[in-house]
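A brief tutorial aside. Many learners find it easier to grasp structure tokens once they have seen a single protein encoded end to end. The record that follows does exactly this for Methylglutaconyl-CoA hydratase. Read the sequence first, then the structure, and try to relate runs of similar tokens to stretches of the chain.
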Amino acid sequence: MADELVHYTVDRGVGTITLDSPHNRNALSAQMRRELRDHLTTATGDDAVRVIVLDHTGPVFCSGMDLKEAGTPESAVSGVNEFPEILGQIWTSSKPVVAKLAGPARAGGVGMVAAADIAVAVDTATFAFTEVRIGVVPAVISVTVLPRLLPRAAHELFLTGEKFDAARAVEIGLLNAAVPAESLDAEVDRYTGMLALGGPTALAATKEMLRRARAADLADDFADMLELSAGFFASEEGQEGIRAFAEKRPAAWVPRE
């Protein structure tokens, strides 16, 4: 049996999914795609998990599709067909997802970074949409990447395939933060700590709200949001949060040490 390429651990409410195939720069081989899908499903359904972190071993976060497995049209299409499910799992997860990059990302790897709610990288990380340079189109990843990027930057970087650094990635909306390598763990912990303070169902509903198409009519939009807001103020979770605030104590859902 092949060694596992993706690992899953849980610690104090944080479910960490680690890509561990450094020999091919964590490329999205068939085995890695399968294990990544399985662990994302597990983490999303795990009541002990409040936040999901996408981590990696080795110097590269993810180099995109495994091109060694894409040597025939059939195998290439198979990989492309499976990838939307992974991006969708990250994008629609009911739990916040944080991407943690200690190194570069390319192509599909950048798609996963964009799909995450929060993305933090070392300041030496680099990124590129290299698809056009091998004669293909960054079509699938565009679904998660384009909502993040400034339009002018998207046109430039998708069409040229030019490599860009972490500072530019922050500037155009791909990353939330770029930090020195020695600060990466602390910055990710800062984000996961803040995310864990939110009510689980409130976080899920807020993620869904952020993804929703806005109503064309302003009055309809306010009506929808008023219904959502009132429901949560009256909910068991909302009432517990209000009591905890008044009593100056952590809410019941906050992970304990």
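Self-check: The longest helix spans residues 73-92. If you spotted this yourself, you are ready for the next section.
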